[in-house]
Amino acid sequence: GLPAALRALPLELTVLYNFLLFTVGASDSAIKGEAEGIRQGLLRVLEACGACGRDLGMEELWEKVLQEVTVEELQAPLQRLGALQAAWWLAASQLGSVAGLFHLLSTAEDPGRAPCSEGQNELLSVIKAWQVPPEGASLPLVQSAKDLKEILCTAAAFLQGLQELEAGNFPTALSLLQEAAGGFCSKKILAQIYTCLGCCAQRMGKPQTALQHLKRALQVDFQCLPALSHVAAVYHELGEMDAELQALALLYEALGKNPPAAASSSPYFLMRTELLVHTPVLTSLLHQHHPSEVKYLLAQRCLQDGRVADAVEHYLDFLSLLQEGLQQQVPLDGSSALPRIPEVFLEAASALGQAGRHQDAITLCEEVISRTTDLIPRVLRVEERLEQPECSVPGAELSQKKESLCCLAWRAAGYLHQGWAWARLGESKEAVTQFSRETTSGGCCVQGCVCLAVTENLQPEVELLQKIRLLALLGRGAQFLELGRHKQALLDFQHSLQLSPGDPAAASYLVQTLWELNRKQEAAAQWQKFSQSCPGEDGQQQVQGRPLPLYLVSCLEQAVSPHRESLARSIQDYLGAAAQDTSS
Using CA atoms, how far apart are residues 168 and 46, in angstroms rounded to an integer? Predict the structure, then answer.
């Protein structure tokens, strides 16, 4: 409450500088908001000089103070306070304000100083060009302005590098992040910078360079586990499955341990780079998976690579984590690597089936079926109102329909897996029952599935249902063949080709059925037709241009006729003999 006095202001501003640094250091959290103490200090400087600036914003206030206050004793405290103001603006990503402030600080210090040369980063240039004011022996500082300048340079390079990375300007981002890596920071921040360098190199299509940066991050601070997560992602991109699984296993092990104390900044500073850099893009790049997410990734990758025994072990470990309350373990903000829980159950059932544990697979699928049945409406309309094309489906209604279709697909996939499990157990009649339940649940409940008026937003879900129904018809038809019920099998395969014209598996089974019914001429004609027009297998691995869900891949493989090649040879022999008879 005392009036401002010029001779006391150098001490007052130095105390303010130290106080703000102590406040930041004590909170040990990211700087947010405005530094109200700085504003009050500047107003007191203007008051002592007979001026006023209460209606000015912070940038205008700094400009007024630095241009109008010429008292020599105030220059060094104001310069230091300006550097502290720059820290607050850097934390708010107000990079233009920081550059403008350092221009003012340097002009007030040396009016004749030349601007930075073309091609240099302006913000880094003006910070580096700023001359640190000398420290007075009678006014000790808790953190020197020289150290603060180095931290500002590092933070500015890091922040700009992240901005350029987010904008897709990868060469510029790489240069700025390399500048930051050579700056003044703790081991923790240095590891984060190397992690960002690795992500930048990966996006530039340089996976080996990315691995070098990420490994450097782990050498600096092995507790930078996001770097290990990115290492696994790079190996996945390179197709190096062994290395990816090793990285994921290390990550899972590290996440399960109690982390030691964070790497110290040595020496310790009140104002640190980590308090200034906290952007959404950095949070995204440094997202740390929960152990359960990593366990799922291990299971998924093993299943994708055909390592069935390992996949089963990881899936069962993951399912045991579910019993511990997974909602308390993973974030619910959409950043989790986990799919929907019914899909995980179905993937686990697929792994168990491939491992020959068919009863366990049946049990898991029954869990999915029982949990989803009550969530499915009796009738689900998915077609557009063609008489009112301008009327769009309300968002909530569309979301509910998508959810209902997902539940329907999961239940149908559960019946599908149960059908194949019973088939592998030699129980063809039970298998037919399960496949029939799928064709009923997947078709009769949905109105609009096979018409062309399906709402575009629901098309992927509807096509997935159609794919599951196709696989169930193929499975049931195959079991009818096993039971010697060829005419019923023929109807299923014909229906399959109506659902998916030219489907290789359906076409092969149709030809096989005709051949076994001794309709050899018709079978040969169909074989010739389909051998010329059937799409490749890659097309069967997709739904609406997207990869087939992992839990359906094994069903697709089981739907392929085991007699396809021998049947083709028999038909070729038959056609050859027929051609010889005609020529003679």
Answer: 44
Residue 462 to residue 406: CA distance in whole angstroms: 9
Contact 30, 278 (CB under 8 A): yes
Return the exposure string of 265-295: e unless at least 16 CB atoms fall within 10 Å of the residue's CB, then b.
beeebbbbbbbbbeeeebeebbeebbbbbbb
Q: How many residues appear in the chain?
A: 584
> Residue 242 contacts by C-beta under 8 Å, 6 or more apart in sequence?
none
Tokens found for residue 422: 């019973």
What's the CA angle centered on 101, arms 99 and 106, to 5 degrees?
95
201 vs 203: CA distance, rounded Å: 5
**148-258+269-289, what's its fold?**
1.25.40
Residue 447 confidence (pLDDT): 42
Q: How far apart are CA 509 and CA 499, in angstroms?
A: 15
- Note the helical H segments in 355-484: 358-373, 395-424, 428-443, 459-482
CA distance 89 to 83: 10
d(CA 335, CA 301): 19
Residue extents of the structural domains in the chain: 1-109+120-131, 148-258+269-289
Q: What is the mean pLDDT of each run of 10 residues along the chain (584 residues)?
A: 79 92 83 83 89 88 90 92 94 93 82 54 94 81 93 96 96 96 93 98 97 97 95 96 97 82 58 91 92 94 96 95 66 66 96 97 95 81 50 69 90 96 96 86 43 60 91 96 95 94 92 93 90 62 73 93 89 85 67
pLDDT of residue 27: 80
- pTM for the whole thing? 0.84
What CA–CA distance (Å, rounded) separates 55 from 64? 12
**8 Å CB contact between 493 and 540:** no
Residue type present at position 469: R
Alpha helix (H) ranges present in 92-220? 95-109, 122-129, 145-167, 170-181, 187-203, 207-220
Burial category of 32 from C-beta neighbours within 10 Å (exposed 0-12, middle 13-18, buried 19 and up): exposed
Q: Quick one: pLDDT at residue 311?
A: 97
Positive or negative torsion for Cα 464, 466, 472, 474:
negative
Query: Exposed, middle or buried: residue 552 (CB in 10 Å: 0-12, 13-18, 19+)?
Result: buried
Collapse the DSSP code of 447 into the 3-class scheme (helix H, G, I; strand E, B; otherwise coil) and give the result.
Answer: strand
List, in sequence order, every residue forming a beta bridge with 120; answer none if it has no partner. Answer: none
pLDDT of residue 547: 85
| Alpha helices, H only, 204-307 | 207-220, 225-238, 241-255, 280-285, 291-304
Helices 291-304 and 308-322, axial angle in degrees (round to 10): 150
Count CB atoms within 10 A of the CB of residue 363. Answer: 14
Closest-CA residue to 337 (of 281, 368, 374, 296): 296
Is residue 4 a contact partner of residue 45, using CB atoms and an 8 Å limit? yes
Of 90, 16, 101, 31, nearest to 60 by C-alpha is 101
